[in-house]
Design goal:
By secondary structure, this protein is of the alpha+beta class. 29% of the residues lie in helices and 26% in strands. It contains 17 helices and 28 strands. The strands form eight sheets. Strands 4-7-10-11-12 form a five-stranded mixed β-sheet. It has a five-stranded mixed β-sheet with strand order 18-21-22-24-23, with helices on both faces. Strand 21 (465-475) and strand 22 (478-488) form a beta hairpin. The longest helix has 18 residues, at 627-644. The protein is elongated, with a radius of gyration of 34 Å. 32% of the residues are buried.
Length: 649
């Protein structure tokens, strides 16, 4: 989500530091900042220079941190700043008025809410408002929404969106004059159709939770509203919805119809029940502030969700034991206060009252993790824990380790291919590509791997490809573990049957069981078998002890190129007394920076001269090379060899 620096500042008493400090702090203690940009916009004639942060909020914090209010409070904890709290209690009009029929304007019928599926909708608060004038939004709302990439629609819709990005509560507004009868929260019962606000036609299923009136469906609950009851320029009276839904139901509807919205993303990760009233309160505050002529006739609340308050106990010694830290008592008290946790100390134990918006805090370790990140993981000593008891490998781990060990000792390389393929027996519900089936064998993927590696043999500096894969397949309604082995060199008449069968016999002898390999491809040659698990491998003996890895101070990672390579072979005659090392140095020093490999692949003597053949591989890290570019380097090599006394063949 994108966050405005100015918007965040609204919820803090202390001033936020420079954006660079904000980014560094979030990256270190809370969330990954994926991008930063500056935005200039004008509000009521004043030019605003804003910074927009693109912050990656993971699902475990989607219930609070996908909002400016709670992201600002997160920054308050990380930077030790004073928070500014929104007064949700100041909306005095949030009184349940179910029995006040006489307050309805003349000729209008009261709309109430009925929840048919209480396990799917835990709470539904609402408000009926008259004398609305739909138009452009106030500039502060409009410009802030635009700054974070949201399109301004009208003042009512923008206010509901502003509340969502402010405190993480999705809201929805209906044209009250369009509604017929009471609002009902139910499952779709007749495979009804819904035209969404963006003009998409949805064929609903019996599993879809919907918001409806007496006549028809108004929206797909928690996902998308319907066009039928949407706010238009002619809307005069509105009905505001603030509800909470069961996460799994919303996610399934979202996936079923392939609709991802900001609302569904929030609901499917779970929201605090208290946000229902807080969202309605802020919405009505904004309507009253920016549309003063509006009349809030009545509000309602199904009161189906009680305020959950629970405590987690943790001691200072437990904190230090789990973190490996040396936090002092006064530091712990300070950190808990910065996190806005209420706590009571009894003896050495802190009973921490969990903020009801933090649905991710469920146990002692969660509290310790919060303490650790605010304290600073960089302050923890780098000490490996002492291993007192050696773990034992299960039978399948023994077998797979032994298979890999044997194949690697015979210079095979392991490949790991995708489990999703174009055809199979079991189809997954959703896929981002045309590969939507679970694979039934390993051979098809291994065939592709072998052929790709054959094309790259010059780059790999090898003349033979030896690979294997050990992985899961799904066939005949069950999951199996398979092993596939292949050897090939790209030549039509080559045959590696003896080599593969020799390796297979060694694997069989090591496992002391009979494996039934089948030839699944003749060229390239591929063998595949089912690897059984369970008691078959209980007798396998593995080496005891712990592997000690020596730290390589010299080694550094170097990324490899994904670009195509070009091969140039150079063959020439030269005097027998010429030194191979000297010739190779001459070639390397003149081949250019894009030459990544120089290999002698043939030599022979004849008539007092020696013939050498070298293979040069050219490849760039960032682009595809052209023949003209490579020729300029190889021509330089030819010229230097000629001056050295070589005769180019």
């Amino acid at each position: 989500m994108k966050y405005s620096h100015k918007w965040l500042q609204d919820y803090l008493e202390d001033e936020l530091p420079d954006p660079k400090v904000v980014v560094e702090t979030l990256n270190l203690k809370a969330f990954e900042v994926e991008g930063v940009e500056n935005k200039l916009y004008t509000i009521d004639g004043e030019e605003i220079n804003d910074t927009i942060y693109d912050i990656k909020v993971l699902p475990n914090r989607a219930h609070d941190a996908l909002s400016h209010y709670y992201m600002a409070h997160e920054l308050a904890a990380c930077l030790d700043l004073k928070r500014k709290y929104y007064d949700f209690s100041k909306s005095k009009y949030l009184e349940n008025s179910h029995d006040k029929e006489d307050i309805m304007p003349s000729g209008q019928i009261r709309i109430d809410v009925s929840i048919k599926e209480k396990e799917a909708c835990s709470r539904f608060a609402y408000a009926y408002i008259t004398n609305i004038k739909v138009g452009d939004s106030p500039e502060i709302i409009k410009r802030r929404l635009e700054a974070i990439g949201e399109r301004s629609i009208n003042n009512i819709v923008d206010i509901t969106n502003y509340v969502q990005y402010s405190i993480n509560k999705p809201m929805h507004a209906y044209d009250a004059d369009i509604l017929n009868g009471d609002i009902v929260v139910r499952y779709d019962g007749e495979s009804e159709e819904l035209i969404t606000l963006d003009d998409k036609s949805l064929k609903l299923s019996f599993s879809d939770l919907v918001i409806a009136d007496t006549d028809k469906v108004l929206g797909l609950a928690g996902v998308k509203g319907g066009k039928y009851s949407g706010i238009t320029s002619g809307t005069v009276n509105i009905f505001i919805e603030s509800a909470n839904f069961t996460p799994t139901i919303i996610r399934k509807s979202s996936m079923r119809h392939n609709i991802k919205t900001d609302a569904s993303k929030r609901f499917e990760n779970g929201l605090s029940g208290e946000l229902v009233i807080e969202g309605l309160s802020m919405t009505l505050d904004l309507i009253r502030e920016h549309i003063p002529e509006a009349n809030i006739v009545y509000t309602g609340d199904t009161n189906g969700e009680d305020k959950k308050v629970y405590k987690i106990e943790v001691s200072l010694s437990e904190v230090n034991d789990i973190l490996g830290s040396k936090i002092k008592e006064e530091e712990l008290v300070n950190i808990l206060s910065r996190l806005d946790f209420k706590f009571l100390k009894q003896n050495d134990v802190y009973a921490v009252t969990v903020n009801n918006k933090r649905l991710d805090l469920l146990c002692r370790e969660d509290i310790v993790e919060e303490i650790g990140r605010i304290y600073g993981y960089e302050k923890l000593e780098r000490i490996l824990p002492e291993i007192k008891d050696k773990g034992s490998m299960n039978s399948w781990s023994k077998a797979s380790s032994l298979i890999r060990e044997k194949l690697l000792s015979y210079n095979f390389s392991e490949v790991i291919n995708y489990s999703l393929v174009k055809n199979g027996e079991i189809k997954i519900l959703k896929s981002a590509s045309d590969k939507s089936f679970l694979r039934t064998n390993l051979s098809e993927g291994l065939l592709v791997s072998v052929n790709k590696n054959i094309q790259n043999m010059p780059l790999l500096n090898t003349n033979i490809i030896k690979v294997f894969e050990l992985g899961h397949v799904w066939i005949n309604g069950k999951e199996e573990m398979h092993l596939a082995i292949s050897i090939d060199d790209g030549k039509k008449k080559s045959n590696f049957t003896n080599e593969i069968e020799e390796v297979i016999s060694i694997i069989k002898a090591s496992l002391s069981i009979d494996l039934h390999f089948q030839v699944t491809s003749d060229k390239p040659l591929i063998y595949e078998t089912v690897i059984r698990s369970g008691s078959d491998f209980d007798s396998i003996k593995m080496r005891d002890g712990i592997i000690n890895y020596e730290k390589n101070e010299e080694g550094k990672y170097k990324s490899f190129s994904l670009m195509p390579f070009i091969v140039r072979d150079i063959a020439f005659w030269i005097g027998e007394k010429s030194e191979v090392g000297e010739i190779e140095n001459l070639i390397r020093s003149n081949a250019g920076d894009l030459c990544i490999s120089v290999t002698l692949f043939d030599s022979f003597n004849k008539d007092g001269k020696t013939s050498y053949a070298y293979r040069l591989i050219y490849q760039a890290i960032d682009r595809t090379l052209t023949d003209e570019e490579v020729n300029s380097y190889s021509d330089k090599v030819y010229n230097k060899l000629t001056k050295y006394g070589a005769i180019i063949r």
